[in-house]
Amino acid sequence: MADTIAKAALVMTVINVASRILGFARETAIAGVYGATAWTDAYQVAYTLPYFLQTVLGMALVSSIVPLVTRRLARNEREAAWDAANAAMSWVLLLMTGLSALGMACAGLLVRLTAPGFDAATAAAAVRMTVIMFPSIICMGFGQMTTGILNANKSFAVAAFAPGFSSLIIVGGVLAAGGRGIDALAWATLVSFAGAMAIQIPALYRTGYRFRFRLDRRNPEVNRMFAGLLPIFIGTATNQIYLAINRFFASGLAEGSISALNYAGKLMTLPLNIFVLAISSAIFPSLSEMALDKDKGELGRTLRRGLVLVLLITLPAAAGLMALRTPIVRLLFQRGAFDADATRMTASALLWFGPGMGAMAASQILTRAYYALGDVKIPLAAGLASIAVNILASVLFTGSMGQGGLALANSLASLFNALCMFVFLRRKLRLWTKVGILGSLGKALGAAAATGAAAYAVSAFLEAMLPGGGIALVLRVGASVAAGGAVYFLALFVLREEEWTGFIGRLFAGRQKNQYKKLTK
User: Could you report how far apart the first and last alpha carbons of the chain are, in Å?
Assistant: First the structure.
């Protein structure tokens, strides 16, 4: 089981890297053509609700459909699995069509609620783009349900690449439009949602599934799925609600503040979307099977390992991004309409997003464990409480820190959310030792601090030696990242972190095994 999860996570990680490279190509193209202006602020607000539904409702749909289909497949009841999937898919398409029509009709109200500080021209542009993009949630609903069915069949590759394909479409649209109007970006976004759905359909058919529209109101499993969908939706909405709160408060700050938060948020979520998403998606079907078998011992061990792995990945990434925030933002975004002031604003937000990255990673793993166990109440309660923490912190820090204060509010809320879920889940499973988690966390924090210090020192030294941008900036950032990474892995080896030393041991064992096979041929 562990080997299967590891292979699936590795495949998804490689594909996620490609997808995120395309995602940054998308953000770079948008920043270069449109900059951080009132028009990009309008686009970000118009994109807020469709993207919110894509990310949150999409995750809720995947979290609901995977256990439903997994239970049937584990019992070799493939036809029953397809019947349940068809009923769920049909109801989701009906729901998304209704939400799309409602969103288009209420576009003006939605913009006023999410960005009350916009002037008339910016608000009008946001309303227009909201109407253009809202039908994308129909494609999102079908696409996310398809992802869930593929994951339940232990098929991860095509679904993992769908966001990258979507980004590729947007890049093409932005380059083709050539800055002629911000509406072109909205149309490209709509087409990109359709592309992310369409690319998964051939893989879905290879599983043997055939979609049939049927509104079965008597299927008990589908009824249970939808009964739990609202609490799962609210529980998984936490991070996106944080972003909506950001945009609400930032709409009254300096022009470009919303866009600066968006670009910083993209950098912050890069490790989450590459590595953490791969690990959480790979272990979710297995956690569902263990929960079905009532094997809490194996479930707890798998969950502990997943938590340690994501913390070992995200904590050094957070330290590196915080230490190198300004040169990284300059390298990735500062060109064309994205000027030095936009870099300063984005770097400020990135600094304060950093402390919450590990907590956001842990929350993804913890929520999957709760949903595998059929518990939707605790993630819901923890998420709602953390939203209140976010609002309070935003009120306290925005006036003095601007967009940096909003990013800090996100980090504090994320830490609160993860801690609440961890404490209650530890009690629920009754088998984790404090040393097992907290010891690894302490080692990862110490190694991450060394990573940030090394990266900052190398960057400062090279900036004096190689000033300026262009190739010099690429060399400075590359050398600083390499130095930080080397220090991190060395620190984990010196501290004898179990997951790291175990990985090295398996690596050398695999090489020795291959050498033995060659010698005995």
Answer: 30
Token pair 């009709």 is found at: 105
For residue 477, is pLDDT > 60?
Answer: yes
Q: Residue 66 region, left (φ>0) first, then alpha (ψ -120 to 50), else beta?
A: alpha
| Residue of 274, 54, 59, 281 lying closest to 153 (CA atoms) | 281
Residue 340, SS3 per DSSP: helix
Provide the mean pLDDT of the chain: 81
Say which DSSP state 356 is in. Answer: G
Sign of the dihedral through C-alpha 263, 267, 269, 275: positive
pLDDT value at residue 213: 86
Range in 315-329, 464-478, 489-503 the model is least confident about: 489-503
* Ranges of each domain in the chain: 2-432, 433-521
Q: For residue 167, what are the contacts with CB-CB under 8 A and spacing of at least 6?
A: 19, 22, 23, 25, 26, 192
Convert 13-40 to b/e letters by CB count within 10 Å (16 or more is b).
bebbbebbebbbbbbbbbbbbbbbbbbb
Cα–Cα distance for residue pair 172/26, rounded to 1 Å = 9
Count Cα atoms within 13 angstroms, Cβ side, for 236.
26
Question: Measured between alpha carbons, how far is 429 from 228 in angstroms, rounded to an integer?
Answer: 21
Q: Residue 504: how many CB atoms within 10 A of its CB?
A: 12
| Rounded Cα–Cα distance for residues 254 and 165 (Å) | 33
User: CA nearest 211: which of 403, 82, 21?
Assistant: 82
pLDDT at 428 over 80: no
Look-up of token digits 């030095």: 340
pLDDT at 520 over 70: no
C-alpha to C-alpha distance for 69 and 58, rounded to whole angstroms: 16
DSSP state of 272: I
Q: Residue 76 gets which letter from DSSP?
A: T
Nearest to 27 by CA among 273, 201, 317, 242: 273
The mean per-residue pLDDT over the stretch 287-300 comes to 72
- 488, 505 Cβ separation under 8 angstroms: no
Chain mean position to CA 132: 24
Which 3 state secondary structure label does DSSP give 295? coil
Q: Is the pLDDT of residue 513 over 50?
A: no
CB 241 within 8 Å of CB 387: yes
Q: How far is CA 122 from CA 52, 82, 108, 156, 186, in A?
A: 21, 46, 12, 40, 15
Residue/partner pairs of 433-440 with CB below 8 Å, 24 or more apart: 436/304, 437/304, 437/307, 437/308, 440/308, 440/311, 440/312, 440/497, 440/498, 440/499
Per-residue burial over 319-355, b = 16 or more CB atoms within 10 Å of its CB, e = otherwise: bbbbbbbbbbbbbbbbeebbeeebbebbbbbbbbbbb
CA torsion, ordered 515, 3, 362, 439, to nearest 10 deg: -60
